[in-house]
């Protein structure tokens, strides 16, 4: 029995580089039979076009093409639709993940501005004490970035920066992407086999 089937997750994709992370995450959740509510910022759509080569002229169509064939169902919410279901605390979701999370979005969440659907939905997760995971992808970091991260971490937000590891012997960019997505799933206690765990190698470094 699939314990994840029918559970609801919110996935946000912002204009930070690394849109493939959010796409891979959504694919993994959908493959488990989860209901995924997608919200993508305008800058996020631009990065998707630049980095993945998607034709984003027909947003609904391109999402159907990439997410329509999975076990679970997805729902797309435009970034300006502040009346969407995920903007309300009465809407029940297991967690929200913003992957990748731009510094602008992170700052808006840290300061409670709720100026679009993505930041409003994140604010809802905070006020309802539900899991919120942010995957910042920026370097270097200045003091304001770090202060905003610390503020949110103290509120219980899970910070998982896009810092791939190499101990599992990645052979491709896809391996590095899978590792990051796997770390997010680990944090949410969702089982997966996206990377080889430490201790699962037949030999450890130096042996």
Describe this structure in words.
The radius of gyration is 17 Å and the shape is globular. It has a 6-stranded parallel sheet, sandwiched between helices. α1 (19-31) links the parallel β1 and β2. It contains 7 helices and 6 strands. α4 (103-110) crosses α5. The chain is an alpha/beta fold. Its EC number is 2.5.1.129. InterPro entries: Flavin_trans-like, Flavoprotein, UbiX-like.
How would you describe this structure in keywords?
alpha/beta; Rossmann fold; disordered C terminus; single chain
List the helices and strands and how they pair.
Layout: E1 8-13, H1 19-31, E2 35-40, H2 42-52, H3 59-67, E3 74-78, E4 95-101, H4 103-110, H5 117-127, E5 132-136, H6 143-154, E6 158-159, H7 173-187
Parallel strand pairs: 1-2, 1-4, 2-3, 4-5, 5-6
Helix pairs in contact: 1-7, 4-5, 4-6
Question: Summarize this, please?
Answer:
The protein has 207 residues and is of the alpha/beta class. It has one domain: Flavin prenyltransferase-like (Rossmann fold), CATH 3.40.50.
Assembly state here? single chain
- DSSP strand (E) fraction? 5-15%
Radius of gyration: 17 Å
Mean pLDDT across residues: 94
Named CATH architecture: 3-Layer(aba) Sandwich
Protein name: Flavin prenyltransferase UbiX
Family: Belongs to the UbiX/PAD1 family.
Catalytic activity: dimethylallyl phosphate + FMNH2 = prenylated FMNH2 + phosphate
Keywords: Flavoprotein, FMN, Prenyltransferase, Transferase
């Amino acid at each position: 029995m699939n314990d994840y089937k029918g559970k609801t997750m919110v996935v946000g994709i912002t204009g930070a580089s690394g849109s493939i992370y959010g796409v891979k995450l959504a694919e993994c959740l959908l493959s488990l039979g989860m209901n995924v509510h997608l919200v993508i910022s305008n800058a996020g759509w631009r990065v998707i076009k630049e980095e993945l080569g998607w034709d984003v002229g027909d947003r609904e169509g391109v999402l159907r093409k990439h997410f329509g064939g999975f076990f679970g169902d997805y729902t797309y919410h435009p970034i300006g639709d502040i009346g969407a279901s995920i903007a309300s605390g009465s809407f029940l979701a297991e967690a929200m993940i913003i992957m990748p999370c731009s510094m602008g979005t992170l700052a808006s969440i840290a300061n409670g501005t709720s100026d679009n659907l993505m930041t409003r939905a994140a604010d809802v997760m905070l006020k309802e004490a539900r899991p919120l995971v942010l995957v910042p992808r920026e370097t270097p970091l200045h003091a304001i970035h770090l202060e905003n991260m610390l503020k949110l971490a103290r509120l219980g937000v899970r910070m998982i920066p896009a810092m791939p590891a190499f101990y599992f012997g990645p052979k491709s960019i896809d391996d590095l992407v899978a590792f990051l997505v796997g770390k997010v799933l680990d944090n949410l206690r969702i089982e997966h086999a996206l990377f080889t765990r430490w201790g699962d190698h037949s030999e450890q470094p130096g042996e």
